[in-house]
Amino acid sequence: MEVGFIGLGHMGVPMVRNLVAAGMRVHVYDLSKPAMEQASEFGCVATNSVPELASRVDVVVTMLPKPAIVRAVMCGAEGILAHSKKGSLVIDCSTSDPQTAVELEGLAKASGQHLIDAPVSGGVPGAKAGTLTFMVGGSEFGFAAAQPVLSAMGRNIVHCGPAGSGQAAKLCNNLLLGVSTVAVSESMCLGERLGLSPDVLAKIINTSSGRCWVSEIYNPYPGVVKDSPASNDFLGGFACDLMIKDLTLALDAAHQAGQALPMTATSKQFFQLVSQQGDGQKDISAVVKLFKK
Ligand code: NAD
Question: Distance (Å, rounded) from C-alpha 283 to C-alpha 220?
Fold first, then answer.
């Protein structure tokens, strides 16, 4: 199977590795030369532009930072939709917003292609292990056609509803990730001040009612989870600036829908503070530094 993949960042590289491991021939494109070189080293076919990539394959996957970039890569004379074959499938795995997903599906349909939104959860560990959750919005046809590609990268592939539903589910999930990262940071740092060992406290939380994905898999307190960004100077993982983007998208969607999100709004300010202090590219666990002794 010939697949195209655009966006070889923290998530894209391990996702592409799994496509190659599943026996697919993967054509890649990214603005970053080192990322392209890395992908070529494990068997991907480098392309020089979006049009070149789009015209070669039957399925294009995008894993890009934010809606404006997704639109730029999809639309216009140099975009995927202008160069993909008729009947081909575009799978946008970026975290974007429901409105963008609906508009892009309409544009794809008008030019004879299929497009689904399929944002992911599971972070870099899930991308590496091939255990991502895909939240899919779009037609039944697109959902079915995407199965071979998505199942090579993930374990739970859920059809959430029509176009935009995947992005809606993703925003609901990520606001919880943001809020719980701040909450676990508060708890771990209170424990430190009260003289508790971080390892003991994490063990207690993870067998008690405070347990959550962040406390267990992605604990922001350095040293608690080996090989996590928090244990590696907050490098790799999910950048604070991307979390700010996701929380802003959730707040915008809530504003349009008339829904109050006070915890999301407050959490966003903590990540904004981290970014303001120069750590916007560090992992979201860097928020713990605001509370640490
Ligand atoms: P990243 O910043 O590490 O990677 C983005 C990649 O896109 C970079 O390699 C960049 O060079 C490339 N890029 C940017 N503009 C481009 C363009 N015009 N053409 C081609 N390539 C371009 O981001 P990431 O952490 O891999 O996240 C990607 C997406 O996945 C985001 O939408 C993010 O919100 C979402 N996400 C991330 C995580 C995570 O844990 N990192 C988890 C779930 C979802």
Answer: 9
Active site residue 203: no
Q: What would the two tokens of residue 82 be?
A: 């202008």
Catalytic residue among 66, 170, 282, 289: 170
Cα Rg, the chain, nearest whole Å:
19
For the chain, how many structural domains are there in total?
Answer: 2
Query: Which of 115, 146, 162 is the last residue before a domain boundary?
Result: 162
pTM of the entire predicted model: 0.95
Report how far residue 108's alpha carbon sits from residue 87's, in angstroms, rounded to the nearest whole number.
10
Asked if residue 105 and residue 34 are part of one domain, the reply reads yes
pLDDT, tens digit, 9 for 90 and up, residues 228-281: 999 999 999 999 999 999 999 999 999 999 999 999 999 999 999 999 999 999
- Ligand 1: distance of its center to the CA of 227 in Å? 21
For residue 198, the SS3 value is helix
| CATH for 239 | 1.10.1040.10
Give the total residue count for the chain.
Answer: 293
Nearest-CA residue for atom 31 of ligand 1: 65
Atom of ligand 1 nearest to the CA of 93: 30
